[in-house]
């Protein structure tokens, strides 16, 4: 989005997200996380200090917000796999927010002499899809929505959202949602928490469709229209970075004066092999390579998902700064851009 003559000299505000929580957590715990039915949420119970340290890594790398370690956290899941009560499970989700707040407090104390007043990081409560707790792979294609009643999914989501809201998150991340049915249900459920805002991000199987097969742009716009007062952005996560540009290109062509804020935080592009783990990192273009292109397409929230580390967040932030500097230059010297074009 290149500034035109007459626009102000300040570029749009860009929010830097954190990266893949389990990926960065693995640097601290030295345990295999992939394949666990609770994924990284187990470490809320077993290694809370390392959860704090992981959040701190992202803050030190320049993230404007940190997302709680609750993607795969649920009351039922903790009861089944940790052997604790439903009440204790609810409190463990609350604790996830408290751990994130501890990290934020430590960061603010550590950098108090350098931070501006508007640089107070947000705490965002992660709400992953219903399929994640099934641990059968259906979260990757959304097939569970074909057989699971909407009310069943809503009843499963409600207490985890309630715990996050009760614990005082600033925002919710309804993330890695693979299917339209669950997305619309979550936008409706959000109304039960009228003072809470959220973004919704979809997992996508290609450069047009969400994981279950519906059109990303159609579903995302419908979600926004369903609850524009509580959604702060719509977008994609947990997909290949090479898909992102086509997914968001032209998204706001029909509303140039009132664009819907877009959020993207893709994976590294690596592939997962069940026998040997993540492969082909050396064949992937780094996420930061795409960042300025995404910003030109109207993205206003950007970060990383699976297999992105704190170091990747730092590089993403650098790209955002470069884009903002270029934006300011073009706003101040529009003739320079025209001369270059000639």
UniProtKB/TrEMBL annotation:
Residues that coordinate or bind Zn(2+): 238, 305-306
GO MF terms held by the record: S-adenosylmethionine-homocysteine S-methyltransferase activity; zinc ion binding
Gene3D superfamilies per UniProt: Homocysteine-binding-like domain
Keywords, comma-separated and alphabetical: Metal-binding, Methyltransferase, Transferase, Zinc
Pathway(s) of this molecule: Amino-acid biosynthesis; L-methionine biosynthesis via de novo pathway
Domain (Hcy-binding) ranges: 3-320
SUPFAM superfamilies linked to this entry: Homocysteine S-methyltransferase
Required cofactor names: Zn(2+)
Keyword Transferase appears in the UniProt entry: yes
Designated name of the protein: Homocysteine S-methyltransferase 1-like
Native source species: Spodoptera litura (Asian cotton leafworm)
